[in-house]
Amino acid sequence: MIDLSLAGLLGAMVGTVVAGVLYHLFVGVLERAMREREQSAPERDAVEFRLSIVRRTVLTTDLIIFAALGYWLGRIFDA
After folding, report:
1. Which among 1, 33, 67, 78 could bridge 7 via Cys, Cβ 3.0 to 4.6 Å?
2. Which pTM was predicted?
3. Could you tell me if 54 and 31 are in contact, meaning their C-beta atoms sit under 8 angstroms apart?
């Protein structure tokens, strides 16, 4: 049977919230910096495509890392 810790699950939830906040802060700054540049229409399309890939990559990475870290820390504090 799977051994799940309540403290670990709470830690994973907190880690997920932290990941969401960091994602919002990082992507918001990145999008503003990319959109402030003067660009032609094809360049804007390319930037939007790259931004969508970066958004997905950052969110996925943040969620995996911070949820796992939160679960791990929760298990440590539970013991």
Report:
1. 78
2. 0.78
3. no
